[in-house]
Amino acid sequence: MIISPIEFFRTLPKKICPECGETMKEQAESYLMECDRCLSKKTE
């Protein structure tokens, strides 16, 4: 059975930052792997 695109995206797991383990807020056009806090630590 083919699942609808809406159901597919609804059932995806939350994105988790590999650096700190925090659940990230998804953004439509973001391919970032780390959360904002970890990214800001890398640019300092």
From TrEMBL:
Name the Pfam families for this protein: YhfH
**Organism superkingdom:** Bacteria
Q: Which InterPro entries match?
A: YhfH-like (IPR025432)
Protein name as it appears in the record: YhfH family protein
Which organism was this protein described from?
A: Robertmurraya siralis
Please name the taxonomic classification of the source: Bacteria, Bacillati, Bacillota, Bacilli, Bacillales
